[in-house]
TrEMBL record:
One of its GO terms (cellular component) is membrane. Its main location: secreted. One of its GO terms (molecular function) is copper ion binding. Belongs to the lysyl oxidase family. This is protein-lysine 6-oxidase. SUPFAM superfamilies: SRCR-like (SSF56487). It is found in: Secreted, Extracellular space. Residues 1-22 form the signal peptide. Its EC number is 1.4.3.13.
Length: 502
């Protein structure tokens, strides 16, 4: 039953056979009409069953969660491979929210509960819907449930004041104060260096860690704290015993990766003695540690030495276009211009080299049976996202990005006395041996950034390897080269590079 006073206007609307109402201040009938329209659109948005519709699931409110997309009348998840803020902004805008606060990876709001519809999304930023972006194809993926992509969107201004709308709520994260004594151990494993992680504070009861968002960054801290080397795997599972054995003590754990103790990482409120876990019931954080790990280092001197411009006709880029290696505008030209083959694209080309300076081989995380055959290149690709090439303007906005469908890993060159082990040809094993480098020469297909639509000026070029932290390493702090880029009408110069974290 809805009631109304003389100082207010009553708005009544029907959604899915339910009557809802909202009372708004009586300023004018026009404002009341607009308020009614906004509320109706808000509820219709959640009931949209059209092809390509999206929704957020698993979050603590309607502005956040893992993304699901509708295809063939069935909802499916989106994989976090190459998931970044460009795609995140499109999701939030498609849902009608003002903007993006944060993107999430690694099943931050729990593992995917449905099949993956979309993988390797590549958006330019001007798309109206997520399905306008390039991706591998409906259902084509190699993703695990823990690779669900998500977003935290901004809430509409003033929406939290409406009585029928849940207020925006973001549980704050904090570090465990140094005055509290934290202990950590592994339990349930087959060997001492693996198992579910248990912690306790000040000699209290032992508790597990929620698996939501658990990744190699957090797992590396655990292995380092226990003196067990490096994280080989970070799992979200109940294989070694789940939350039914010990209560969940910590959740929302978020580490940078270089902390010496889990106590230095961020966590949701733990003062109650237990924490809420939004993910798969009974699943907890699990780690497998090992004393050996690879360590990839970007050779930024090679980037500075080889960077140059090339104007290439699209007739010579058909294989690259099959792998989404050009900007979206190129596909518009291909569709609309019958003479598109004679149109040229301006490319920033460079050689990218990654040296394995660790103490064991770098191997792709996908099983060999899941590698993809690429007809254009006539060999198998073992990693979808091994490297990313991004260009940012002086305000920090991404204005161009390189994109490769996937990568083949091999020992291109090794230090004297080191034999080559890995080769892309003939379905050979792939990887990068210790003291060997995988080199992508500038004359290879897709070894570029399409900058045709970019204005001349000063920019920042970022080349990152293993950018999604899918494969364990000793350190991720040397996985990206950040360089100055001067782009003119006739030449480009890359200099002043430095190593950073992706």
């Amino acid at each position: 039953m809805c009631t109304v006073t003389s100082s207010s206007v009553l708005i009544i609307f029907v959604v899915s056979l339910k009557i809802s109402c909202a009372i708004v201040p009586h300023t004018s009938l026009e404002e009341a009409r607009l308020e009614r329209q906004r509320l109706v659109q808000k509820y219709i948005k959640t009931l949209n069953k059209e092809e390509g519709a999206i929704r957020l699931v698993g979050g603590r409110n309607e502005y956040e969660g893992n993304i699901e997309v509708l295809h063939n009348n069935k909802w499916g998840s989106v994989c976090d491979d190459e998931w970044d803020s460009v795609e995140g902004r499109i999701v939030c805008e498609q849902l009608g929210f003002p903007g993006l606060k944060k993107i999430t990876h690694s099943g931050y709001f729990g593992p995917a509960r449905r099949r993956f519809w979309m993988d390797n999304l590549f958006c330019e930023g001007h798309e109206k819907e997520l399905t306008d972006c390039h991706f591998d194809g409906w259902g084509v993926n190699d993703c695990e449930p823990t690779e669900a992509a998500g977003v935290i969107c901004e809430s509409p201004a003033g929406e939290e004041t409406l009585p029928e709308i849940k207020p925006e709520y973001y549980e704050p994260k904090s570090r465990i104060h140094y005055s509290q004594r934290m202990e950590i151990r592994l339990r349930g494993g087959r060997v001492p260096n693996e198992g579910r992680i248990e912690v306790r504070l000040n000699g209290g009861a032992w508790g597990s860690i929620c698996s939501d968002g658990w990744s190699l960054l957090e797992a590396n801290v655990v292995c380092r704290q226990l003196g067990l080397g490096y994280a080989r795997d970070a799992l979200q599972t109940d294989y070694f015993g789940g939350a039914d054995l010990t209560p969940v003590l910590l959740s929302g754990t978020e580490c940078y990766g270089n902390e010496t103790s889990l106590q230095e990482c961020l966590h949701y409120d733990f003062s109650r003695g237990t924490s809420t876990c939004h993910g798969e019931r009974n699943h907890v954080a699990v780690v497998m540690c090992h004393i050996l790990a690879p360590d990839l280092v970007v050779d930024y001197y090679e980037i500075e030495r080889t960077a140059h411009l090339e104007d290439r006709p699209m007739a010579l880029m058909q294989c690259a276009m099959e792998e989404n290696c050009v900007a979206n505008e190129a596909y518009d030209i291909q569709r609309d211009d019958p003479n598109w083959r004679y149109v040229t694209r301006r490319l920033l080309k460079f050689t990218a080299s990654a040296l394995n300076a660790g103490n064991t081989d770098f191997r792709p995380f996908k099983d060999k049976s899941m590698w993809e055959w690429h007809m254009c290149h006539m060999h198998y690709h073992s990693m979808e996202v091994f490297a990313t090439f991004d260009i940012y303007d002086v305000q920090g906005n991404k204005v161009a990005q390189g994109h490769k469908a996937s990568f083949c890993l091999e020992d291109s060159q090794c230090l004297p006395g080191i034999p080559k082990k890995y080769n892309c040809a003939n379905f050979g094993d792939q990887g990068i041996s210790v003291n060997c480098s995988d080199v992508y020469l500038y004359n290879l297909d897709c070894q570029w950034v399409d900058i045709t639509e970019m204005n001349t000026g000063l920019y920042t070029l970022k080349i990152a390897i293993n950018p999604e932290f899918k494969v364990s390493e000793m350190s991720f702090d040397n996985n990206a080269a950040i360089c100055n880029l001067l782009y003119t009408d006739t030449y480009a110069r890359v200099d002043n590079c430095r190593l950073e974290r992706p």
